[in-house]
Amino acid sequence: MTLLRLILLRILTTAITLFGVAVIVFVVIRVVPGNPIAMMLPPGATDADIARLQAQYGFDKSIFEQFIIWLGGVMQGDFGTSISLRQPVSMLVLGRLPATLELSIFALVIAVIIGGMMALTGTRYRDTKTEGAIDVTAGMALSVPDFLWGLVLILLFGVLWPVFHISGRISPSLNIDFTTNFYVFESLLRLRFDVWLDLLSHMFMPALALAIPLAAIIAQLLKQSLKETMHLDYVTLARTKGYGEHHVITREALPNAILPTLTLVGVQFTFLIGGTVIIERLFSYEGLGNMAIDAVINRDLPLIQGIVILFALLFTLVNLAVDMLYVVLNPRLRHA
Amino acid sequence: MTLSRRSLLKSSAAAATFAVVGLPSFAQAIDELVIAYNVNLPSWDPTVGLSAVNPTIQGFYQSVFDLFIPQNTDLSFGSGIITDYGWNDDRSAIWMDVREGVSWHNGDPLTAEDVAWSLTRAGNPDSGNPIQFIWGKVNNIQTDGNRVTADMPEYEPTFFKWMSFLTGYVMPKKYYEEVGAEGFEAAPVGTGPYMVEKFERNAFVRLKANENYWGGAPEFKTVTIKFVTDAASRVAEVESGNSHVTLEVPYEEFDRLKAKDGIDGVAAPISDIGMIFLNDIEVMTDPNVRMAAAHAIDKSLIIERLLSGYGVPIDTLQTPDYVAYDDSIKVPYDPEKSKELLAASGYGPDNPVKFKIQTTKGFKPKDYEMVQAIVGLWRRVGIEAEIEVYEIAKHFELRAADQLAPAAFYNWGNSVGDPTTSTGFAMFGPSPHSVWDGEDTFNAILPLWGEADEAKRIEGWKAVDKRIAENAEVIPLLQYVQPILHTDAVKVTPHRSGALLPHLMTRA
């Protein structure tokens, strides 16, 4: 019952949040300088031409009227048509979403693996030089932004030791006829391992660039949490029972220590998705973030609105999922 | 947790396997040409919407479609789908001969009907063609065999030049009417040297050679153009061998890479120029201030120091390739003259004239740095300019509303090379792209729009450029040079328009 109430409450707050985001984005992008009509004016445009273009895109109406019209469309699943790409916004953003999600999930997996390994190793060798080295590594990883990691990776694995693809999502020479845009998952289902490896080879560098700072955060928090847990009585009891250090850390301490890390990973995952905007641009990865930059440059207002709403929806859904998972994993909350 | 030798070997083997399987296909003998392009292609219809007037993507369009009249690499006009053209005696009608034996990519024959339909569609205000104001100047478009005729009630001297410029593409009547706009977007059909095989928006386009191309089949049978918008990534693409050709890389990187084995480079001037718009408001209504600002800029020094020498100083809005270029018009670097001019208006280093200059940052190579250098040069003579950085979208908005600052840096493209599309649109007050409202310039330009005598028209524009330079109503700075990097296994022929055209590339 608690879980159901929580879900209903979160759905309600999600709807309110999305409406608020929609209002803010709609107003802000119309108030900031940079009129899309001015960008498409032909050299000999007259006042009548300008008025015709404004009417064609609905910019001749007040912001409030434009918002009501847009909201009416959204209620029916119509997010408008992109000015620069001349395609339905919903089709464009939903078409790109899988690429960004796959990249983000891959980055998250890498971050959890690297961060988790660092935390476990640091805990195992606590108060030694190994822990010091891990702390220094995590500090360095955290102090460099993801796009700089991207440039370093391009130099290392794209130029000096060119083993991974520098740009794109998939090699143009590969013929794929997939039904979804979740290429990684679908290639596995179809047993197209050539495609799968090619996708991973394209995703590795952008995903690693996104993952490095998050891995450092996970390493620091999880190690701290593990070290605190290692002093608790039940862990001492496990030791007295004769369990080895490896068993004590991974089987006894980790399940309790992981809860705060899980919450953090959820929050950081939303930041990671936000980070794809720059990283996708750097690696010419055909995701939502890359499209967002083009939309902003072209002042493609309907597309900007669609992308921001989708990002907001993603953020709230991820947070909701984390909350749910926390309830499931934490017995005290589950039985409250 | 310990790292054993066995686990280390396992990890290394796994990494090596992954690396080898995922290894990019580096070119040995080039079967498939790969180009890392600096911009995305938003839309395939080259005649409608925002992208149709984007000069940076015309190379894509010219690979798949044919312009009515093609331009040679030096911007001269060639013979293409329209082989011959002209006006009648009183210049109230035009005629065009359409090339015979040309096929669309789907095998349909190209006919004069296609040309007539393309012109009619372009001139329809509801078509969404941004250059409708030109195409709409003809009506009663008729075909007779391979000849197309049309009435032109109001003489437009640049009409045929526009046929080599933005939106001047021949479109397939039958196919377009069959599939509609959406179908055309999904599977574009042209008559150009390449056919679209595969298009992933924001990722790449894969082209197949049109073996029946009327101008001869291109040498590379398959071309992949990857959209790599980040300059550092483009450099890495070529340096790693993932791409064979790229363009618009920083000049320093261009010099570094072309010195490496296996990589070559070509840097040629293109039709884009850098300039400073002067808005005749505030202190810019004083000709002494404007002229002082113009004479205080050492263009050669800026090109040498900031652009590694890649640029051509200019003193009018015409580059040396343009038909109305006049090399006798000079605005020399003369800081002493600037000081004298400012002194005549009561200004000097102790009492500087103050105004704002707007610029983009990173939109064009070293744009902000150039403006910084100019502001430094101005300071020496008694001009104190405050720099405001803005986005290009804001520039367009302010320019259309005639609200630019007294000085504003911008770049202007004019691959057709006619003075109307440079000085004309930039300096004629009523144009949405001009912020100069001076009546004298307006009156000087007005009769040139419809001047039927071509020699007189060009001389008229030269005279306009001369008086604009003498009064410093705009400050032209430089003609840009486009850096193209390529593997030495490919020969690249640059086009003055700035379009990177794969059908002009051959094996070295």
From TrEMBL, chain A:
Question: Where does it primarily localize?
Answer: membrane
The ABC transmembrane type-1 domain, residue ranges:
97-326
Enumerate the transmembrane spans. Answer: 7-32, 99-120, 147-164, 199-222, 257-283, 303-329
Show which residues constitute the signal peptide: none
Kindly list any coiled-coil regions of this protein. Answer: none
> Which subcellular locations apply to this protein?
Cell membrane
Biological processes annotated in GO: transmembrane transport
Looking at the UniProt record for this protein, which Gene Ontology cellular component terms does it annotate, in alphabetical order?
plasma membrane
Identify this protein by name. Peptide/nickel transport system permease protein
TrEMBL record, chain B:
The protein's UniProt keywords, in alphabetical order, are: Signal
**Main localisation, per the record?**
periplasm
Residues forming the Solute-binding protein family domain are 81-423
Q: Which InterPro entries match?
A: Peptide/Ni-bd (IPR030678), SBP_5 (IPR039424), SBP_5_dom (IPR000914), TAT_signal (IPR006311)
One Pfam family recorded for the sequence: SBP_bac_5
> Signal sequence span per UniProt?
1-29
Q: Which SUPFAM superfamilies match?
A: Periplasmic binding protein-like II
Q: Which GO terms describe its molecular function?
A: peptide transmembrane transporter activity
GO CC annotations on file = ATP-binding cassette (ABC) transporter complex; outer membrane-bounded periplasmic space
Q: Which domain of life is it from?
A: Bacteria
* Positions of transmembrane segments: none
Locations listed in the record: Periplasm
Instruction: Write out the GO biological process terms.
Output: peptide transport
Protein family per UniProt: Belongs to the bacterial solute-binding protein 5 family.
Name under which the protein is recorded: Peptide/nickel transport system substrate-binding protein
The species this protein belongs to is Sulfitobacter mediterraneus
**What is the phylogenetic placement of the source species in the record?**
Bacteria, Pseudomonadati, Pseudomonadota, Alphaproteobacteria, Rhodobacterales
